[in-house]
């Protein structure tokens, strides 16, 4: 049985959306148990009568969205996120899911769950659809954990993304690309040029060189490597573009001439299905990779559907064993370096 710790008090719609999402998840997956951390009275009031593999662990505090991350983690000892992270650290749960304060969750993952030895900075990793191949996805790492990154950290991001693409996405030899302002080898700033050299020498990955943001949705690679500032900007630009295209089509249906309305009507469903692949409600969350166990961040505005999808994502990641695989790979590299 896979045990997933869920911060029931994190997010804009907590605890209701979190509890409803947990209920949906246990009804979908028969091999998981949910540990809900938060105010017992509030959570209990939302659970219908019945026998569910859900346990409530009462916590008297919660971390607010405007709390300073590290201070909150250190001072609010009985906060739902903190207690849940410590449970993962102790092996009482296999993964942590939260829609709460992003900075606090990153701190909880790094300081409480703990970094994998040899990883300087854990990174946020997520998947986006390959629009040229139906059902295929690619990994984007970092999605916002580290705004500034040195070349070595971009190298770490590549190793993490490569391992995830193998174990979770089933890619036998993931193509790894470095996000840059041009595809030529000479492009980039000092950091990306140094990272290019490191990745070119890395035998454990299939590095294809620099890639441009305009090409990543076309399936040019399976892993896109960037710093957190750039990766987050790319992610939000993609999400915003998808949303606005649908808005434009809907507007054409209402205000255009007859010919425009007919054209928009013909493509609307197909376009909605394609762009729906970017819908945060169905794709789950971003994974903090480089720590000792899965820590997954839901969108702060997560609905019950999003929470259920993220719990399903946590289950898949635990079953894949990718965190253990990464730890072993890094340990092997450190051993080789010592030799």
Q: What descriptive keywords fit this protein?
A:
single chain; 339 residues; alpha/beta; Isopropylmalate Dehydrogenase; 2 domains; eleven-stranded mixed beta sheet; 12 helices; 11 strands; cytoplasm; Phosphate acyltransferase
- The rough form would be described as globular
What is the name of the CATH superfamily of the largest domain? Isopropylmalate Dehydrogenase
Q: What portion of residues belong to β-strands?
A: 15-25%
Decide which structural class fits the backbone: alpha/beta
Overall average pLDDT: 89
Number of domains: 2
Q: Give the CATH topology of the largest domain.
A: Isopropylmalate Dehydrogenase
- What is the succession of H and E elements? EHEHEHHEHEEHEHEEHHHEEHH
The low-pLDDT segments are none
CA-based gyration radius: 21 Å
Please give the alpha-carbon distance between the first and last residues: 40 Å
CATH class of the largest domain: Alpha Beta
Strand order of the largest sheet: 3-2-1-4-11-10-5-6-9-7-8
Indicate the percent of residues in helices. 40-55%
Organism: Aerococcus mictus
Function: Catalyzes the reversible formation of acyl-phosphate (acyl-PO(4)) from acyl-[acyl-carrier-protein] (acyl-ACP). This enzyme utilizes acyl-ACP as fatty acyl donor, but not acyl-CoA.
GO molecular function: phosphate:acyl-[acyl carrier protein] acyltransferase activity
EC number: 2.3.1.274
């Amino acid at each position: 049985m896979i045990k997933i710790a869920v911060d029931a008090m994190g997010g804009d719609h907590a605890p209701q959306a979190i509890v409803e999402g947990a209920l949906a998840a246990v009804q979908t997956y028969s091999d998981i148990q949910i540990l809900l951390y938060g105010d017992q009275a509030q959570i209990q009031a939302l659970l219908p009568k019945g026998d569910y593999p859900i346990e409530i662990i009462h916590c008297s505090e919660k971390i607010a969205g405007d709390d300073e991350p590290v201070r909150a983690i250190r001072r609010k000892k009985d906060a739902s996120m903190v207690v849940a992270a410590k449970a993962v650290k102790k092996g009482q749960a296999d993964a942590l899911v939260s829609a709460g304060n992003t900075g606090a969750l990153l701190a909880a993952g790094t300081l409480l769950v703990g970094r994998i030895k040899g990883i300087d900075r854990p990174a946020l990793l997520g998947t986006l659809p390959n629009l040229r191949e139906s059902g295929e996805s690619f990994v984007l790492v970092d999605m916002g954990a580290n705004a500034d990154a040195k070349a070595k950290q971009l190298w770490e991001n590549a190793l993490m993304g490569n391992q995830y693409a193998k174990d979770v996405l089933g890619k036998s030899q993931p193509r790894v690309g470095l996000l840059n302002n041009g595809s030529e080898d000479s492009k980039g700033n000092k950091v990306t040029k140094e990272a290019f050299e490191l990745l070119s020498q890395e035998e454990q990955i299939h590095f294809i060189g620099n890639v441009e943001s305009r090409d990543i949705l076309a399936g040019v690679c399976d892993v896109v490597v960037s710093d957190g500032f750039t990766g987050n900007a790319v992610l939000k630009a993609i999400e915003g573009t998808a949303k606005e295209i649908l808005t434009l089509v809907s507007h054409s249906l209402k205000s255009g001439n007859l010919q425009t309305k007919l054209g928009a009507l013909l493509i609307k469903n197909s376009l909605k299905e394609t762009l729906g692949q970017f819908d945060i409600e169905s794709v789950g969350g971003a994974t903090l990779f480089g720590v000792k166990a899965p820590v997954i961040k839901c969108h702060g505005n997560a609905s019950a559907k999003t929470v259920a999808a993220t719990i399903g994502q946590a289950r898949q990641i635990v079953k894949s064993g990718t965190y253990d695989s990464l730890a072993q790979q890094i340990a092997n590299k450190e051993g080789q370096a010592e030799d």
